[in-house]
Amino acid sequence: MQYLLSILLAFTCASHAFAQRFQTAPIRKHIEYLASDDLEGRGTASLGEVRAANYIAAAFREIGLKPAGTKGYFQPFEVSFAIDGEAHDLTGRNVVGFLDNGAAKTIVIGAHYDHLGKGFQGSSLSPDSKNKIHNGADDNASGTAGVLELARYFAGNNVKEKHNYLFITFSGEELGLLGSKHYVEKPTLPLNAISAMINMDMIGRLDAQKGIIVSGWGTSKVWGKLIPDLAKRQNLKYTVDSSGVGASDHTSFYLKNIPVVQFFTGGHGDYHKVSDDPDKINYQGEASILTLISELLEGLDQEATEPEFLTAGNAHSGNTTSNFKVTLGVMPDYSYTGKGLKIDGVSKARPAEKAGILAGDIITKLGGEPIGTIYDYMEILGKHEKGQTVEAELLRGAEKKVVKVTF
User: Where is the Peptidase M28 domain (predicted)?
Assistant: First the structure.
């Protein structure tokens, strides 16, 4: 009897493993390599970025995707940024692979693979961050791993879908969506053949209580039609952001009138810090998100018509990727749907901490201007200069407080 029970248990476990679409082991493998010290934070145009791009291209080749860049799998682009106050012209590169199903329309599946390098580019929130490796396991080795595993799934599922799939990992995102902007200006497939764009940025820290944040909800009715049932099936809570404009690469496609949707597991205290490491990733959570995305792609394949593009309602009309002169040094809680800016984390030695702002606080006014959404906050932030002191009104539980913030 014990022997028979052992056989039954082994069979049950094997069946469960077979039924699971995405395994944690390959996700972990990708993230541990991309976020290793050897790649030195994958700064745009750095040697670490080149090595990461080579890894992604090798995976695309092994999976069987066709090269779809301008130089094989690579799409180089020029980038200029300052290092220690001196501007330099360098070359970044997107990595592009194509799963050709002979279809008229293509869906883009993307994520950025660059990060902050060794603290000389981008916006590190770690104090004394220069010459320290920012591994960026969640931001965005997690999304890059998602691209690779979705590519592997669709290339190996023995199904010829009604769409082609263009898998793109972008560089230059941390410097202002440079890689995705370059792609939509110089696409390797006609933009009018692209049906939709699915983006993954920071999908590695799933908290079951907070769930996922789905952006771009208002760019097509199809997201609201398909995602709720799929999320329920995966037992994933979610909150939505209607806007197609945000601080990631889906924005570049939305601005070309392409329906977009982005998946994001929210901010955390390691965001843009040297502590964003692979041991903090929720690998099973990421596997669940990838299952949802794969089922979403299959759902799109069954729709009678292509996703209709809608101009998403968004009170914010500015550019969310602007280089602000000042920062509070906070991580917003992107899952918060009430009025104001809810704080998920506060960086040490930054203006918010010095002013006494704490995680959990909800900032309702800054510099005398009301904050309804994160977009209001970003617009207000863009109006201030270093050295200015302003009042911030906030809620701490039921208590109202006013603090002075010096940028």
Answer: 94-294
